[in-house]
Amino acid sequence: MAKKPTDIMTEASDSFPINELLEANPSFTRREMLGITGLAGLTVMAGNAAAAFPRAQQSRPRIAVLATYWGATRSHADWLVNKLIDGYWWQGAHTESRVEVVSLYLHQHDTSLLGQKVAKAKGIPVFKTAGEALTLGGKELAVDGVVIVAEHGNYPTDLKGHWLLPRWWMYNQVIQVFEQSKRSVPVFNDKHFSYNWDEAKWMFDKSRELGFPLTGGSLLPVYYRKPEIELENDTPIKNSIVVGAAPDEGAIFHCIELLQAFVERRKGGETGIKSVQSIRGPEALKWIEGNAWAGKLLNAVLASLNFTRASVFENVRTNICVIEYRDGTKAAIIGKTGPEWTYAGEIEGRSEPAIVSLLGFAGAFGQYHAGNAQPHWITEMMVTRKEPFNPERLLLTTGITNYYMESNWENGKYSAIGRRIETPFMNLTYRPTRGAQFNKGVRPPERPYIRGFDQ
Length: 455
Known about the structure:
alpha/beta; Dihydrodipicolinate Reductase, domain 2; 2 domains; seven-stranded parallel β-sheet; seven-stranded mixed β-sheet; 13 helices; about 20% strand
């Protein structure tokens, strides 16, 4: 069933009305909502822009942004790109941007009025095609990095719940320019690679073939933690859970990526995924009761947060994603309501599990809301040309998400107890090399976005 414009997803809730653009931005007039005047001068026609973007005396990496939709303050483009333009809050202080956004492509241009208005205020040209945004209207690659934000917009959802966002299509436009230009630059891909494993694997493989740094994912692995700890590499993790909001594909991806960011630090490093299974609704509680290791970890989380068991299982949308790793490690995502996420891991030799929570998730309407550490690591990759974490993590979390969505369906029929899908092809191995990467220190103050027109 196709999504209506009013059904655009948010991070941890079902949907929000596009009319919130007017409510959240009272400076918008009705005329601006119907069509912002004067934007034609910033919408660059093909073939006449290259001369307008000289490379001389450029000290900051120049970034092309490709976005599906930028029409509301809760859209990911608004969260991420404004911080690449104006700076972000990192480790207790505001950090000026170290990159320059020099071009913008909007796949759903006509409904992306907020993005158009930001571009006009900041002097950023809006191109008609993704390729032109990378070449700045010329014939070859003319930027130093690419940011793809293919999250949100009026795109259909298939029967299994996959949101058919054109992430692969946009990425493929980038690859075509790279191959034509015979050079490549770092690429950030927001959220998971694709709703399709074959597309996702192709995307990862292309980065290795062409030799460009690649990152992506969500903000959860680098969000504020309580306590402020990171598990050491080679921690003898036996079993793990993440308890968090997981009502749909986009939300459970957050939980899976957070889980993977901890589990990959286990003894021996990552070994790959053996199988994935989805269990939904009332059957989820039965699964917990039948798996003592998961029940023990869940009880520890509930006790640490003063939550009740009913707070997890009273919701008919409670769901479980069961993950088996190739080395015998087990893990599960346990869905609950509310924007709170907690990791719990059973560690060999310890009497109590390791518990790390992401609490106090900030709202979407302030310049320094939740999404700050992610723009920091995007910027780091663009400046240093080094990947902030192993992109294999993103490929595995994409695969787990994909097969979780597939698990409840077989031969066109749905079952609350999903089939266990063997995934021998998800045999990626790697060892994380970085220490803690999450945001720390004083939380940012509440303040409006710095867009140049509604300060």
